[in-house]
């Protein structure tokens, strides 16, 4: 399906060029280092030419299939989630601040998606405001602060970049975040500006309207929980950017970290980096992570590769290279490599001198989709237990093993408690 869409995208781009447009770029290739691109495409369908003669027989168009309305979680499923959360809470003290991070969330669809399979249609059919997080929200609501990577624009704009994937959700969708237990989002990624600066500003306005905090390059997110001050920094450092201006980027990151770091705060760094569908971090990622920790970062978490990567603990600080996809409206099919995902829940507390530090981390395995058909993505992740959870834990440990400071064990929900 991806190859067909790429052909369609390229054909559309060529027609646009012949009509006087600019040269297109495909997602994953360098689009330039600025968000102000002049290349655009109207996402509305073009008008079609009227037929020259009426057909001899009336033609009845086949109605579009109705979207599937997936049922709400059962009470038994909710009880199991709540029992697992209660078991986790026994493992840490009341004074510990618990944060939750989830990976790529595309609360949106793309023009080429069949309408009945789109995020928009499935979301509306569910009748649930919090549909994408109907399972995850119990975890999000039982912590002190939840942050996701929001990989789409919330906008009604129609002019988009000419690229293979461009994701747009209605601004009202921002209203699902706070009720789901999500307080903050990261925006520094390759889809937040799919609808140019107008769409990016629309996204920020929608988040503000719905009382949701956000971070991107140059705009840190600051919050305080359990008496601990946190600063979240967010950067786009995909491989092509690193190859083009890597020295400049890492120098900026380290300077920002040193500026924000104090004796009584925690500096979190969210990175959009690496290569899509690679299950190992690139050498530059490992190098940059260490340099950022040396500069004062206390916890690093990554996104963009669309699947899980290994975890390191360098100088006592966790580096979670890739969280994988989570509630991902960017593909109506369940990509096997992206099916296993997770949320991570680092904990922080103060030592005897009052200095905060990371006191531990829990991994909660999820499947990207809760649809009964494993080939379908219904955009609603579901927690895993037993052998399924063990598979995710084993995958993480196996991918961590070759790393210089790879973790040798993980506290994993559904396996260890």
Features:
alpha/beta, 417 residues, nine-stranded mixed β-sheet
Structure report:
There is one protein chain. With 417 residues, the chain is of the alpha/beta class. Helix content is 27%, strand content 24%. It has nine helices and 19 strands. The chain has helices at residues 2-18, 75-89, 119-126, 137-140, 196-209, 239-260, 283-295, 336-339, 386-400; strands at residues 41-42, 97-106, 145-150, 153-154, 159-160, 168-169, 184-186, 213-215, 221-225, 228-238, 265-274, 299-303, 311-314, 317-320, 325-328, 340-350, 356-367, 382-383, 411-412. The strands form four sheets. Strands 2, 3, 7, 8, 15, 16, 17, 18 and 19 form a nine-stranded mixed beta sheet that branches. Helix 6 (239-260) runs parallel beside helix 7. The longest helix has 22 residues, at 239-260. The radius of gyration is 22 Å and the shape is globular. The two termini are 40 Å apart.
Task: Please give the structural blueprint.
Elements: H1 2-18, E1 41-42, H2 75-89, E2 97-106, H3 119-126, H4 137-140, E3 145-150, E4 153-154, E5 159-160, E6 168-169, E7 184-186, H5 196-209, E8 213-215, E9 221-225, E10 228-238, H6 239-260, E11 265-274, H7 283-295, E12 299-303, E13 311-314, E14 317-320, E15 325-328, H8 336-339, E16 340-350, E17 356-367, E18 382-383, H9 386-400, E19 411-412
Parallel strand pairs: 2-3, 2-15, 3-7, 4-6, 7-8, 10-11, 11-12, 12-14, 17-19
Antiparallel strand pairs: 1-5, 2-16, 9-10, 13-14, 16-17, 17-18
